[in-house]
Structure prediction request, 444 residues.
Amino acid sequence: MALAHDYTDVQHLPVPPRTDDTAAGLFRLSVSMTFAKDEEIYGQDEDADLIYRVLDGAVRTTRVMADGRRQIGDFYLAGDIFGLEAGPAHRFAAEAVRDSVILVIKASTLRSSGGDVGRLGWEATRRELERAQEHVIMLGRKTACERVASFLKDLSDKSGGLRVVDLPMGRQDIADYLGLTIETVSRMLSQLQASRIVSFCATRQFRIVNPGGLARLANQTL
Amino acid sequence: MALAHDYTDVQHLPVPPRTDDTAAGLFRLSVSMTFAKDEEIYGQDEDADLIYRVLDGAVRTTRVMADGRRQIGDFYLAGDIFGLEAGPAHRFAAEAVRDSVILVIKASTLRSSGGDVGRLGWEATRRELERAQEHVIMLGRKTACERVASFLKDLSDKSGGLRVVDLPMGRQDIADYLGLTIETVSRMLSQLQASRIVSFCATRQFRIVNPGGLARLANQTL
DNA sequence: CGGCAGCCTTGATCCGCATCAAGGCGCAGA
DNA sequence: TCTGCGCCTTGATGCGGATCAAGGCTGCCG
Prediction:
């Protein structure tokens, strides 16, 4: 596990670089920090008074059971907000999937804001809830093939529906997100490629060859 | 499936009967409705302008895939609030597990409220998110035995830690909540009883014989 | 350019849960 | 009380994904 962050690279940004979406408004008075690959952003059980936004890079939230079994709660890419799942304390840890730049704001600032700003926080929490519920469906009732297909499709959708998509995370992270083993993920990816649904340009970049076929395999209910 | 509710039993209640918790404050201007066992409270994809609170009975939220596979999102007992998962439309349907009385309030009333009331809605949404995330851990990384043990323990905790607990739902509902089949749920329940962890007084009522053993099997991480 | 380490793929086998099948039990209604 | 139906349990068998095992690829650093 990476060492605790030393906070030497904190910079004050009056305005975040991306201002093209509502979330940006929440982060007007924020601080930017960089995290190395696999570095912890916050720990499980840690007090939660901060909310985060990915500026560049990718983040995973994880929970590890006593015997080492790991579940990834979600992945967050550039523009995404995370850290909202906290009551008094975080129930998941957050780690950088690769070198990342993160904006940070005090949660108490947000929560005490009346009107619009408070409503934006609520909206963001509601979207998190929706994503968690989709995840429940996936883990409860989808086959390994459907899970992997859903994962690739979601990633493409998040990237604006591009045909060529980068995978920021490794196979083990995908497995721990989908509730599978790394071997099963690898086999399903090979199988999807063999069926001409997708095609891997590199280990961590694929092209969607047959979007209709992918959607059918993903078996989305909505 | 039950017929649509005919709304003939709507009554106006100036104050809900239970006023001993914060949630009650949200429902000061609400309407009470009764639903028969298995009756639909709202449908998947249905527009969402209402928020609900269980006064008496039990409710499940469900999502059905094209081929009939069903996943239950959560169960709600007396005092619980549901219907918050909606963006523009509900992503799960809600049905009465047994004859139930439900309080209903317009969501727009809540959302537009500034200050305290708005914050209570956010808090309730955040608790929903926490429950969904626990569900993700369960479905992603727990064995059948751990899932059933967790389920019984959660139910007991929700009922205030009682040793004798009623199961409002049938075995099929439990299976669809835990991502298992009804046969596996039944076998695990028999197994827990054989190991003197719990003891079934009736099909739908059990006693926790060994709380420590149950907690150990549940394998909670927090 | 060569060597090494971490990540990924592929194959063989195993096992937990699903599926298929056959009653048992309890409750409701005659 | 009897009867029937829905719900639940239990047993036998099958299969999807886990586990165990053995390399292959790729990117980094000398």
